[in-house]
Specification:
The chain is of the alpha/beta class and about 200 residues long. It is built from 5 helices and 11 strands; from the N terminus they run αααβαβββββββαβββ.
């Protein structure tokens, strides 16, 4: 690594500090209204999707779960991730907003297994940082990296506060870029997914 680059661990800390500072000064009403509506271009891109995976935002993460009601109104099945082990494995379980969630590792929570895992057509993922090349900086556990690799045809969408944008996020050879990033102020589109509706 040369002096012009920064490692992912340091970048994560910088991004978390920036996110925490931003959310702490955000107007409570603006926070409550953020991420409740899918922008029209995103709604069109997921029109044919059957299963959309969200996540339950923790602390100052962008609250993806707020999109659930609109997705359900669009006829989508909504799912949440379930962490299976500490080695980076997770699957996705069907979820309704009034379902009781069970505790999982790393302060995660997930629905009851019900009929078992579902396969998402769209994965809406948390992130610590992102750049305009659609590189995603995650928590470092590799859970979403493995899910993206296992489900390469799923549309990969990150949700973040706008302050989480970085000039450049280092990408390893195994990192799959996102197709889109949704912030509270804009939808940033990268390359279309295979078979996606433009």
């Amino acid at each position: 690594m040369n002096g012009d680059t920064i490692d992912k661990t340091s970048l994560r800390q910088i991004a978390r500090d920036r996110r925490r500072a931003f959310v702490s000064t955000l107007d409570p009403l603006a926070h409550r209204l953020a991420f409740k509506v899918l922008p029209s271009p995103l709604a069109r891109r997921i029109a044919d999707a059957q299963v959309v995976a969200l996540y339950m935002g923790l602390d100052d993460e962008a609250p993806a779960q707020r999109l659930a009601q609109q997705l359900i109104a669009m006829g989508k099945t909504v799912a949440l991730p379930r962490v299976l082990d500490r080695l980076g494995s997770m699957d996705f379980l069907r979820w309704q907003p009034d379902d009781i969630l069970l505790p999982g590792p790393f302060r995660t929570s997930h629905p009851a297994p019900g009929d078992g895992p579902v396969t998402p057509d769209v994965i809406i993922a948390p992130l610590v940082g992102f750049d305009r090349a659609m590189n995603r900086l995650g928590q470092g556990g590799g859970y979403y990296d493995r899910a993206f690799a296992r489900l390469p045809d799923a549309l990969r969408i990150g949700i973040a506060w706008s302050v989480q944008e970085q000039d450049m996020v280092p990408a390893d050879p195994w990192d799959l870029p996102l197709h889109m990033v949704l912030t509270e102020v804009e939808l940033i589109e990268g390359l279309p997914a295979a078979g996606a509706v433009a």
